[in-house]
Amino acid sequence: MTLTSFGPANRIKRSAETHPLTWRLRDDGEAVWLDEYQAKNGYAAARKAFADMAQDDIVQTVKDSGLKGRGGAGFPTGVKWGLMPKDESINIRYLLCNADEMEPNTWKDRMLMEQLPHLLIEGMLISARALKTYRGYIFLRGEYTTAAKHLNRAVEEAKAAGLLGKNILGSGFDFELFVHTGAGRYICGEETALINSLEGRRANPRSKPPFPAAVGVWGKPTCVNNVETLCNVPAIIADGVDWYKSLAREGSDDMGTKLMGFSGKVKNPGLWELPFGVTGRELFEDYAGGMRDGYKLKCWQPGGAGTGFLLPEHLDAQMYAGGIAKVGTRMGTGLAMAVDDSVNMVSLLRNMEQFFARESCGFCTPCRDGLPWSVKLLMAIENGEGQPGDIETLLGLVGFLGPGKTFCAHAPGAVEPLGSAIKYFRHEFEAGIAPVSATVPPLARPILVGA
Q1: Domains in the chain, ordered, with CATH?
Q2: pTM of the model as a whole
């Protein structure tokens, strides 16, 4: 896995001042264990938080930093923390790390957990202190076996050093941390589905409100944060709000840095820690090296399979939530995918929608029935057997499964790339519509009323 620095051609070395997430990484890609992590100033932020900061001050510092969730939704972390109850009599609270990284084309959290497990543990320790949570769980994608092994070893190292368990750092504060591997469901990336799965239930999203901060794991107040989000906390506590905000490029309203990447047929696929506000062109050309010889960029997704496609002319958009929104889609996880000119968009979308249909929890009708319907239509178009009106039906599904129309955000994310693909490459879909025979009537297809 590639990790480079801010500067093209690696001219600038990673440092604590510019790369809060990745400066401790080893060049050989091996994990940074406790002794090396502490030699690189590890757990200094936790010691500061325990010795010098009130719990509410930690929450306020994270809120003032402008840190937002790095899992794709982008909700302000400090605001989320502030939703936890203030009532000191509620002494059972939970902190959950969402490490169920199943978004296609996304592997940023995997890198952090495999190579910097103590950074995540320190982030959770500080967060637990701020939120007064006595127990934490890292809900890990089941296929991440190396991450599970490394996290479990790091937890044992932290326990032996008195950084987890009872009376941490002599503060009287107790915090237990467990690694919980899931069974492999995309829907567990939704925080309430994750909570249900952790409890041993079917991984269906819950109705909100009540939100997890009020009624979460086993009915107790719970905060759920992404891996990368929690890994930002130690640097914010150690170096302060003003420094953290200064990392982002001018024009970005997202603060700090972000793990961004590019995959596909690019010359240098990889993952880099970059300031919010870099352009897609910098990411694509300076870091990913552009397309391999013999291939041309057809379109790209900015942040995982659940984000809309963009054209090459959109590469000048700044990589932050508002910058990507200006060109019609979402930042998502920040790991982009290049689609080359040899790819048929109908086949690509059929493959994507098959994944999303399979991963639906099946709870609400639009998602349960609408996504398989889109797959059937796309398969017919892919085979040249599409019928007049099929494209309009697909666009109708994009509308009916959009934001606010389903129980959770699974379906809206699933149909966003479909809508954008038809918008930019409708001719490829039209090519799969069979001519109407004068003697054989077209197969009956349901009509979406009000689409």
Answers
A1: 21-245 (3.40.50.11540), 247-340 (3.10.20.600), 345-430 (1.20.1440.230)
A2: 0.92
